[in-house]
């Protein structure tokens, strides 16, 4: 697949499927369904962006899956079936702004609820070597086919609909959350995710554990517990030479056995950027210091 001089005036990629519906062959595997659409929407808002605009964009925690799925899920819940304590926590989801910020609890509730519901929907497929329908397909069924057979739990004599499945999943999640909060105190998304910056060797002591980061796989700031945007960079093409900002959390040398390997992680965790040095050929000839990058 190729594209040349697109009408929109820009190209973008966020791990989405690289073709449209006219492509004649099947593409198997997981493709991003939400952060690519956020990126496209943001880039279409205006024709000129500053470096600071792109910094904010790269650090965006806005979650489009939550924006599209949560209102549908909330709408079918009969709140009279919730206890007062469950209702108090549930109300937080109703006023959430759909940002997976590190200090929020709503992403914990949403992803626990959605994940549990998704598992309930497709548990009958666990015994077969097939790919399960993606989130987009599941949400479409939720919106348009509330009595679909996949919402029914075959292990029970009753016939369940999406409302049964959603309520069951919600009460399970709220019960776990309230029990955990009572035992360990209040938590947040960053603590809950337990993001790890693992070392190449796999030795925990050489990396960093339990980073407090926002974002998720459905945000442009796609930080998950074990993968994410380790290298961020923005380049502005000025008249004289490129000007760039970025951040490498694992040290300037690139040597994984350097004593300073983890020195940049705290700054990366906070979403900071540093101006990068671009050397033209004459600059290199004048430079006496050299930096070696080991591959």
What does this structure look like?
This protein has 295 residues and is mainly alpha-helical. It has ten helices and five strands. The strands form two sheets. It has a three-stranded antiparallel beta sheet with strand order 3-4-5, with helices on one face. Strands 1-2 form a two-stranded antiparallel sheet. α3 (64-75) packs parallel to α6 (135-144) and α5 packs across α7 (162-184). It is globular, with a radius of gyration of 23 Å. 20% of the residues are buried. Mean pLDDT is 87; it is low at 290-295.
What are its keywords?
295 residues, mainly alpha, 10 helices
Chain-wise SSE layout:
Blueprint: H1 35-43, H2 51-58, H3 64-75, H4 84-94, H5 106-121, H6 135-144, H7 162-184, H8 189-193, E1 195-197, E2 208-211, E3 232-237, E4 242-247, H9 265-269, E5 274-276, H10 281-286
Antiparallel strand pairs: 1-2, 3-4, 4-5
Helix pairs in contact: 3-6, 4-7, 5-7
Radius of gyration: 23 Å
Uncertain ranges:
290-295
Q: Provide a count of the helices.
A: 10
Number of separate strands: 5
Round the mean pLDDT to the nearest integer and report it.
Answer: 87
Distance linking N and C termini: 30 Å
Tell me what portion of residues adopts beta-strand conformation. 5-15%
Helix content: 25-40%
What does the overall shape look like?
globular
How does the major sheet shape up? 3 strands, antiparallel
Helix-strand string? HHHHHHHHEEEEHEH
Secondary-structure-derived class: mainly alpha
> Order of strands in the sheet with the most strands?
3-4-5
